[in-house]
Design goal:
Blueprint lengths: L4 H15 L8 E2 L6 H8 L5 E4 L16 H6 L4 E4 L2 H6 L4 H13 L3 E6 L3 H5 L3 H12 L5 H4 L3 E4 L13 H18 L2 H6 L1 E5 L4 H8 L6 E3 L7 H10 L1
Parallel strand pairs: 1-2, 2-3, 3-4, 4-5, 5-6, 6-7
Helix pairs in contact: 1-2, 1-12, 5-7, 7-9, 11-12
The structure holds 2-phosphoglycolic acid.
């Protein structure tokens, strides 16, 4: 909820023109759902993809206020963010709901970007791996190997989101390597190597290169810095 329609349009146009025709990384914009159509127009015919910030798991029916996978694909989405820490903390979303959303997204041909990450209290209690493992196992419940290979995981330590505090490349890599190992256990080494694991939490042009240079960091989920086309492009160019 950081943009209004004029900002959303200008931002999308700025990203599209900066990305050019042959970007070396995959780029997507995930605006608030009411601006999806507007941003879809700005990215139409360009390599920049479109995604939703959430979905409701039901295929159809009376769910006032909700938006489902079919509606997202209707307006041109290819991706959907699921289980963002703000939804988990503020809307009480649990792993079971995230897993239902994951299956709904896949059934609707969307690429889910599943967010996991520990709070500061968890980290200080040395519970990072336990929390991330519980979230991952719960959120990916019932997922088969074939479909697993196409999903995206975003590791977002809650203490680093919107706070200006970034996990150091070593801290982030440690958790990413742990996630990769867990994915190997849940699926196979081959599937685990195909799953993209993004880092999110105060990614900026100035720290993107070092973060993205880590062996298990395959991309970034960007919040604040994506609100300025120039900053977002700086991160894209570091990829
Ligand atoms: P941030 O947000 O980049 O502003 O920390 C990340 C996010 O909300 O996913």
């Amino acid at each position: 909820m950081n943009t209004r329609v004029d900002d959303a349009t200008a931002l999308a146009q700025g990203v599209v023109s900066g990305v050019g025709e042959n970007p070396t990384v995959e780029v997507a914009l995930c605006p608030p759902s009411v601006y999806l159509t507007t941003v879809a127009e700005a990215v139409a015919g360009t390599p920049v993809g479109l995604g939703g910030q959430d979905l409701y798991a039901a295929a159809d029916g009376a769910f006032t206020g909700e938006v489902n996978a079919g509606m997202l694909t209707d307006v041109g989405c290819r991706y959907v963010i699921l289980g963002h820490s703000e939804r988990r903390a503020l809307m009480g979303e649990c792993d079971k709901q995230v897993s239902e959303k994951l299956h709904a997204a896949l059934a609707g041909n969307l690429i889910p970007i599943v967010c996991v990450g520990e709070t500061l209290d968890d980290r200080e209690a040395d519970a990072t791996e336990k929390v991330v493992e519980t979230q991952l196992r719960g959120s990916l419940d019932g997922l088969d190997e074939v479909r697993a290979a196409g999903i995206v995981i975003a590791y977002e330590p809650v203490w680093a989101i919107g706070t200006g505090r970034t996990a150091s490349p070593e801290q982030a890599e440690e958790v990413h390597a742990f996630i990769r190992k867990l994915l190997s256990e849940l699926f196979t080494d081959d599937v685990a190597s195909q799953i993209r694991i993004q880092y999110g939490g105060s990614v900026k042009p100035g720290n993107a290169k070092e973060l993205l240079g880590q062996p298990n960091i395959d991309g970034a989920l960007v919040g604040g810095a994506s609100l300025k086309a120039e900053d977002f492009l700086g991160i894209i160019n570091a990829g």
